[in-house]
Amino acid sequence: MRILLVEPENNAAAYLRKGLIESGFAVDVARHATDALDLAGQTNYDLLVCDGAIRPTGFPPLRGAARQTPVLFLGLRDKPPFAFSDLLTGVRSMLHWGPGAVDEILKIDDLQIDLVRHRAIRAGNRLDLTPKEYLLLSLLMRKSGEVLSRALIADQVWDINFESNTNFVDVHIRRLRSKVDDPFPKKLIHTVRGTGYVLEDRS
Q1: Judgement on whether residues 6 and 93 belong to the same structural domain of the protein
Q2: 97, 125, 153 - which closes a domain
Q3: Total number of domains constituting the chain
Q4: What is the pLDDT of residues 4-36, one digit of tens each?
Q5: Environment class of 86 (CB within 10 Å of its CB; exposed 0-12, middle 13-18, buried 19+)
Q6: Alpha-carbon separation of residue 113 from 41, 118, 201 (angstroms)
Q7: pTM of this prediction exceeds 0.85
Q8: Domain range spanning residue 87?
């Protein structure tokens, strides 16, 4: 699930972006409504999270470009700081009930992830994943059947530019496989030589 965060203050944007990424979302940041408009014209977002101090009048064209993506406005700056847990509850609620609501549970064969409870289960067994492993698995499952390049994985999960002379992504895929695939007879994470990785049921 991809979120566009519209926040003019650098520290606040960094804090919110980090928290949302650690909660399993892919996040892009825009400083102003005009920047958000440009990004929304290039990418389909599931939700816009916007600083409440930005004038809502700037959003009719943004909502049009974002194909009626729901907008969650944060509290105004003259109000006491909100708890991140409250923001996360609002985000998940809008994604579940709002226009274009996304599924709470993704399932491939006997593997499933619960996006609300933030957990992964295979064959009835809960998987002990780190936050990054969970984010990597959720990316692979959301794009099930689609081959993802190492560069795309590095960008979406770690927000870094992948260098082809490193095996950074491969190492993390191996660690994820050790928990998701190795204990089970059917393998779901597959390598596509020279391209990247795909999660799919090939039975």
Answers
A1: yes
A2: 97
A3: 2
A4: 999 888 888 888 988 888 777 888 999 888 888
A5: exposed
A6: 30, 7, 15
A7: no
A8: 2-97
